[in-house]
Amino acid sequence: MFETLKKQPADKILQLMLMYADDPRDQKIDLGVGVYKNAEGVTPIMRAVKAAEKRIWDEQTTKTYTGLTGDSAFTGGMTRLLLADAVAPEAISAVATTGGTGAVRLGFELIQMMKPGGRIWISDPTWPNHIAILNYLGIEIKTYRYFDAETRGVDFDAMMEDLKGAEAGDAVLLHGCCHNPTGANLNMVQWQEVADLLNARRLLPMIDIAYQGFGDGLEEDAAGTRLIASSVPECLIASSCSKNFGIYRERTGMLMAISADTARKPLVLDTMATLNRLAYSFPPDHGARIVATILNDDALRADWMAELEEVRLSMLGLRQQLADELQRLTGSDRFAFLAGHRGMFSRLGVSPEIVERLRTDYGVYMVGDSRMNIAGLNSRTVPLLAQAIVDAGA
Ligand code: LMR
Questions:
Q1: Does residue 344 sit in helix, strand or coil?
Q2: Is residue 13 lining ligand 1, measured as CB closer than 6 Å?
Q3: Which H or E element spans position 72?
Q4: Going by CA atoms, what residue is nearest to atom 4 of ligand 1?
Q5: How far, in Å, from the CA of 33 to the mean position of ligand 1?
Q6: Is 257 a known active-site residue?
Q7: Does the keyword Nucleotidyltransferase apply (predicted)?
């Protein structure tokens, strides 16, 4: 039977991870997978995470199953972190998932269950795994233009024009903040226009928010999501704790379904719990318990927020340093957009040939569409990268 299997298309990001690991050069620079690294090139365990783990180790008395929806201390804490008081609690159904990817997958499955044969609009470009999962599930994909190759900002007019082609009942996938892969984000006026369009055309938004706290701050990064959640009758929100808590391998995420018709909550929650059961029964608990411990303790929460802010500011500093260095080397402002992008990623906007040259000649690893993980840099490697970008002909 196994001979009937077909080779699956490789994931571009994970493939790059392997290529980087195989490269023997000392000077290589990893700007591939979206993992934060500090100035020493280490992905540290955050202080509050270590403290929470110690507390859990001391106090936890059982490892028996949680519920299918996960621990309510986790879903409640995360809901407040994401939405504050933008939406009434009775409107929200939330389940813990296996990481942000699990939340995305569950959200897509829910959409498919609600509307078999329905369509989902995704930004062009988007995280490649969005496309892979949708293809796997056999959900029809429609794309809306998003990135302006000239300005390296959002091509908002094109986005709105394309979304006007959506039909009632279509779903629209939006990145809550820190757009992956471009780093270009909507402003609040644009979020409002998107909300108006969603309402006018009766579209279902699904927001993927995996980088809250990595852009302009915890509150600022959630503002677009809160605006949508409080403006439309129904929406889905997939969130991740991998990056902002630095607990990548613990696989900690959450899917929220919001309905202004609060009577829907029992059915929606039960369906999401069933989807968890069908996929893996109970969602993983350890990461969720760490997050719940931090969010529900004033001192740990304050320490986590302070460390997250250091991480955010260090990425902003690297962005500015890179933009300045490229300005100095080229004598032009054509890379100034790097300082304006937010989150871990920026799309440099160079050809695949230049991306390839950067990798083979300079040991610089970025995704083929020229997505760079800014957090893979440090103050020593920024000038090396800037020089390589210029020398490679960008
Ligand atoms: C990324 O985009 O690099 C991250 O979200 C990691 C992943 O799973 O692809």
A1: coil
A2: yes
A3: helix 72-83
A4: 34
A5: 5
A6: no
A7: no
Domains of the chain: 11-45+312-391 (3.90.1150.10), 65-296 (3.40.640.10)
What's the full length of the chain, in residues?
Answer: 394
How much is the pLDDT for 394?
A: 87
Q: Which two tokens stand for residue 208?
A: 């993927």
Q: Please identify every stretch of the chain with a pLDDT value under 70, giving residue numbers as ranges.
A: none
Containing H/E element for 137?
helix 128-137
Alpha helices, DSSP H, located in 249-380? 265-280, 286-295, 298-330, 337-340, 352-362
Residue 263 to residues 79, 86, 329, Cα–Cα distance (Å):
19, 19, 61
Dist. CA 36–CA 376, nearest whole Å: 7
pTM of the model: 0.97
User: Which residue's entry shows tokens 């990056």?
Assistant: 243
Omega prior to 125 cis, within 30 of 0:
yes
CB atoms within 10 A of CB 10: 10
- 13 Cα: distance to centroid of ligand 1 (angstroms): 7
| Nearest-angstrom CA–CA distance, 196 and 216 | 24
Q: Ligand 1 pocket: which of 35, 97, 127 to mutate (most atoms <8 Å of CB)?
A: 127
Contact 276, 282 (CB under 8 A): yes
